[in-house]
Amino acid sequence: MKKYALLLLLAFGVLAASSPAMANHYTEFTPTADCSGWCVSGTVDLVGDPYADITYTVTLNDGNSDVKTFSDQIHITPEGLSFNVCADWGMDLCGDYTASGSFVLQGPNGGDTNGFQISFSCDCPPPPPPPSGDACTRTPGYWKNHDWPVSSLTVGCEEYTMAEAMDVLWMPVRGDATIILFKHLVAAKLNVLSGSSTSISDDIDAADDFLCDHPLFSKPSGDLKTECNSLKDALAYYNESNDCDGGDYTSGAVLPLSSSKTPAQGQSWGSVKASYQDNNK
Questions:
Q1: From CA 66, how far away is CA 24, in angstroms rounded?
Q2: Residue 85 CB contacts under 8 Å (≥ 6 apart), including other chains
Q3: Which strand ranges, in their side-by-side order, compose the sheet holding 25-33?
Q4: CA 268 to chain centre
Q5: CB–CB of 159/208 below 8 Å?
Q6: I need a surface site. Which of 4, 79, 174, 276 has the fewest CB within 10 A?
Q7: Residue 208 CA to chain centroid, in angstroms?
Q8: Helices of type H across the chain
Q9: Domain boundaries of the chain, sorted by first residue
Q10: Mutual orientation of helices 162-169 and 269-279 as an angle, nearest 10°?
Q11: pLDDT tens digits for range 65-99
C-alpha cells in the first residue's frame, strides 16, 4: 500500500517536574508515523539517577474515533540512555489518520514529558474488477422480464419453481431485507448459470446459508439485518458490474415463456405473500 509523506509533525512542549538541568529530561526525541506503523527514538539525561522509566501511549485516530492504542514502558539506565520503539498498526489503512503519542520519563529525581501528533493519508485499494466471464451479468429487473436457463431454483433451503420465484421478484421489499437479498441471490445464480463469472460463488453460498437460517419474510433486524444487507450489496455489485445493456429492461421486455403465471406486479402485497405461504405449508 502506498505511503504518503507526513503532513504534520507537532512536538508537545516539555512539561518537566523541574528545570531540565536539575531533573531527568529528553535530549533527543524523534517520532515518525505512516501507513505501516510508528516509531519513536531518542536519548535522555538521567542527571545522576540510577534509572528511569519511560511510560508511553500511542493512539491511531481516523477522524471519528480511536482505531488502535499501544501502551508500554521502557527502562532506562546510565549504561543505555538511548531508546527506539516501533510498532506496526497491524491492519490496512485507507483514508486520513492522526497518530498521537505521550512519552512520560520519570525517575527518582523527577522527570519530563514529550509527545507528538502526526497526520498522514493512505491510499484506498481499488474496487474489485468486474466479473471476467464471457457472458454479461443481469439485475433482478432483467430476470423478472426474461426467460430463465432453468425451470426451478434452490434459494436458501427451499426449491422454487420459476413461477414461485418470479412472484417474489415482483414483490415490494417493504423493509424486509430477506426479500431484496432473495432477488439479488436469484439474479446472481441465474447469471452464473448463463455463463457469467463464478467469482461470486462464495457470496452465493453465504447468502444461501443466511436464508436457510433466516428464511424469506423473516424480516431480520439489528445485526442480522446488517449482515443480510452486506450479503445483498456483494451480490448487487456482481449483478450490476458487467451489465451489458445498462439495466434498462422495461422497454421491449420478453416475458418468461415457461412461467405459468404473469408477473405479479398487479397483485397486492398481502395476496402475493399469502399465496406464497399457502404453497409452502
A1: 31
A2: 39, 40, 41, 56, 72, 74
A3: 25-33, 37-45, 82-88
A4: 37
A5: no
A6: 79
A7: 21
A8: 140-143, 162-169, 177-193, 201-213, 222-241, 269-279
A9: 8-122, 140-279
A10: 150
A11: 999 999 999 999 999 999 999 999 999 999 999 99
